[in-house]
Amino acid sequence: MSANRWLATGNYFTSYREEQRIFFTSLDRTAMGLLLAVLFAWPFFLELDNKYMLVIDNILVAVIAVMGLNLVTGFAGLISIGHAAFVGIGAYTVASFSRMLGENHLLLSHGWPVMIILAGCMGAVFGALVGLPALRLKHLYLAIATLSFQMIFQWTINFMNFFNQGQTISVTRVTWVTGQVSRSQHYMFWYYALLVVIVLCGFGVRNLLRTRYGRCLVAVRDNDRAADAMGMHPGFTKVYAFALAGFLAGVAGALHAYLYRGVGVESFTLHHSISYLAMAIVGGLGTLHGSFWGPLAIKLLDLQVEQLSEWVGAHVTAATNLATALRPLSFGLVIVLFLMFEPRGIANWWRIARSYVKLWPFRY
Amino acid sequence: MAYLFQLIISGVVVGSIYALSALGFVLIYKSSRVLNIAHGQIIATGAFITYALTVWAGIPIYISFPISMVLTFFLAMSVERIFLRRLIGEPIISVIMVTIGLMSILDGLIYLTPFGTENFSFPPFLPTTPIAFAGVSISWTQMVGVIVTFTMIGAFSWFFKKSTLGISMRAVSDDQLASMSIGISVPKVFGLAWAMAGLSAAAAGGIIGNITGLNFDTLHAFGIVVFPVVILGGLDSILGAVVAGIIMGLIQQFASGYLDGNWGLNGTGEVMPYIILLIILLFKPHGLFGIHEIERV
Amino acid sequence: MKMNRVTSWMFLLAAVSMVTLPVHALAKEYKLGLSLAITGPTSDAGNPYSKGVEDYFQFVNDTKMLGEDTINCTIRDDQYNNDITKRNFEDFLDQGIVFYLNYSTGSTLALKKDFEEEKMPVIPASFHAGNLVDSNYIFLPIASYSAQAIGLAEYVVKNHKEGTPKVAMFIHPSAFGRGPVEDLQKAVGAGLKMEIVEVVEHGKDLDNTAMLQRLVSKGVQYVISQTVQSPVATMLKDASSLGLVAKSFGEAGKITFLGCHYTGGNDLVALAGPAAESFYWTTSYIVTNEPSPGATAQLDLAKKYNRDEKAANSHNYANGMMVAQVATEVIKRCKAKGKEVTKENLYEELQAMNGDKAFSPGTTVGPVTYSKTDHAGVDSLQLYIVKGGVFKSTGTPFVPEYTKKI
């Protein structure tokens, strides 16, 4: 450890314990504290339109889901093409309670934190179930097993009357200490709720990765036979990675249900699974903060392109085809360019920027 | 009894079209270990090019069909050159993601043309009365589809077994480093694999387009429909694709023929392939004909 | 000196704004919103629909139909994704829209509660009867899918020769497709003399031979479809190659195919080609190949804004145009009464659109009527049949009877 607790110009670790700390310097800790303070405080100073609040909330939901995906795909190296289905399991947990108990039951409106955790547990159970083939399957075959789960999930929801055959099942407004959250407060309320959940999950995941269970995931990703030889059980680890991912996805799903006040199967299709994957990759696989960058980048890009195509549509007459084609085109281009030129995602830019600042004024 | 035979025949016919769609998939995976999610878009592109040549340029379909196959051959080759060449050696997930990006780009390009949102159909060029035999019937379009499928699969099998190029492609799929050391150009092989996949995709697109009419939604969905087929057959086996394609066609026909409408079930043809797939994968993790990879620590 | 220049600029600015502001205050701009799938699934219907809406509002502004006032309708592509629809709707609310146009069944159902809370009058492009359940602010432009299916069933019962007609339904595997199934079963329960032998949910089928043979062996003579064009086209192709398509209505041993709004139109002919011959289709919209004032208006509008042939003749272009006509009409009526154009007043005007105040847009086969209890616009349906590759009307517009009995 360097003498200076605020600025470290290099690594001065003398024990593994030090290397595993969450904050390396006091500066890191303060910066994180400040960031959180800003995130909690800005709505008091700046009022945003509902549209943008919804966009922000939506990004935060995606952050939780992508955190889960990053655990299973980034850290444990198991490609999952069915993540939206896990999110859907969470949402449909809330929805089925809504169907069984009646829409305005106290458990749903007052006990929503319990519901969110319950949805997470449900996601974990299904995650573990879907992870079971991982005991035998590998690589792409496993990826396709998750795809199968996605398809079976969609079919089941679409088919069963209990789930309203995939049509929207409405979810009630929640009640907080200040009374029922009204329409005007809705997005702000869920912004704070999401923020708290993200902070909890973020620290949870960060701490997990410091323990043997977290490192176990990485070891199995890097070489499962070596991990086996070192006394870990690769199969069990994979199942458990899926369960963890399922838990976070389930939580995200429940939040999605409450945020949109309804659950319909169209929000959890294969297309969404692919978008989650795109977010995880653009953000940077195998990094925790990548889970924040990815959804942010993809959702904002979508918004920007929407505006761009509207602008094109307004200025180039009779070019609706061009304007509409712009959206998928630019989305695809961003993903492809990222992978061609920055396969490690935005997280890598962050890493470079950090080390640049850290070593300043010396060149990196 | 005739109903059972009809189900079997329809299953085989549909299955062989699946096999043809899956073929391109397998070709790409076999040589370069890339899972091409944009395959459905390439199938659609092939169908649209065939239509444009036939109807807009007025070329007879017997000629325009091969021309479109050749065009798609070069198109797929350039896709590989532009997008995937740089990613050789990158982790598998990056490569999958690139094909997802590619899917979006192709979507965008197709929306630039009328094909993105409008519907078309090929002018009929085959007799419309079906070939009927003992209460079982099969339409001429489907018959031609089956013939094209088996011709192409036969040609590809021969190509991989006998020709130098095919053997070098197999060598690359087996061990890239070793094949480079004996003078095989690995990038060239990858390009060729994509090109051949484009060729078969155009053929599949032409046939599917003739059966369903040209609707972008319907056509590109086949990129996903073939997933269970290729996995069931084993990702790197051409024979596997054929057998699995036919099995899947049969499963679908039997599911919708016998399950639907009974016990309150409906639409089982869509989901049954995936359920069967999961069960089979538990017993044979590398599919029916996939090569069991031996891993070294 | 510098101070002076600033003040003189201020004066000038004030003077300019004093001149221009009153003019602005006179000419009002009414904001509307439309969110629909221009790309992605169902874009073959959404694309011409959006063109119809866009062109008609442009036409309203260009011809000064509302005097100096203009309509500003923002059209957004939601790629058939409910989350984006919700985002667009929130955006429109922030902009202060007075009327909202929606598209898919899924998003209409998902946003139903928001419409209630915001008291926002909405016309979706989905005619799903379930849209109206527990909802006060959703208005269907034409008769629901259920009414359409029942209308077709009534036609079958009326024109069937011997015994009870055996009918099968061919539906889309979603809420959109399943909507009319239950209602049709109820109608049968209420005394409609027919038998629903089987309900087939289609997938991405490449071959319907087995299904068709099964239906024929069960004695099915009529198939009522509620889905989109592509699967119907595949089925028709198979049926025609098997020689199963009835030449005349209800021909024994053959099958007569019928379908609701989204199964037909020129797109079906484009997809199925000659196999579409003698397909029966019902909708409340006119078709452009039969001369009528509405058809002329539709073709002229498309021509004025340089749309291609396909869009101009699409029934979904008429669909979008009609929705825009209704929206314009209520704004016009609201203005004529000297009321302020707000969502509340527009909602009232919409509900008052009945009796002698019924609105005839010309693009439909009957007048648009709404009331407190009736939120389905055009109640009458027209039956069309494909002859020589075009849809020709057969009989006169009719109103299904059993919709009220269930």
Shape of chain A: globular
Number of helices of chain C: 13
The second-level CATH architecture of the largest domain in chain C is: 3-Layer(aba) Sandwich
Q: Residue ranges of chain C: pLDDT <50 for 5 or more in a row?
A: none
Element string of chain A (H = helix, E = strand): HHHHHHHEEEHHHHEHHHH
Description:
The complex is a heterotrimer of chains A (364), B (297) and C (406). By secondary structure, chain A is an all-alpha fold. Chain A has helices spanning 16-19, 26-45, 50-75, 83-101, 106-109, 112-131, 139-159, 183-208, 212-222, 224-229, 234-260, 270-283, 290-315, 320-341, 346-359; strands spanning 169-170, 175-176, 179-180, 262-263. In chain A, α3 (50-75) runs antiparallel to α11, α3 (50-75) packs across α12 and α12 (270-283) packs across α13. Chain B is an all-alpha fold and 297 residues long. Chain B has a domain at 19-223. Helices cover 73% and strands 2% of the residues of chain B. In chain B, α2 packs parallel to α4 and α11 (238-259) packs across α12. The mean pLDDT of chain B is 84. Chain C is of the alpha/beta class and 406 residues long. Chain C has two domains: 28-143 and 291-374, Rossmann fold, CATH 3.40.50; 145-283 and 383-398, 3-Layer(aba) Sandwich (Rossmann fold). In chain C, strands 7-6-8-9-10-12-13 form a seven-stranded mixed β-sheet. In chain C, strands 2-1-3-4 form a four-stranded parallel β-sheet, with helices on both faces. In chain C, strands 5-11 form a two-stranded parallel ribbon. In chain C, α6 (175-189) links the parallel β6 (166-171) and β7 (195-201). The interface between B and C is large, with 51 and 45 residues.
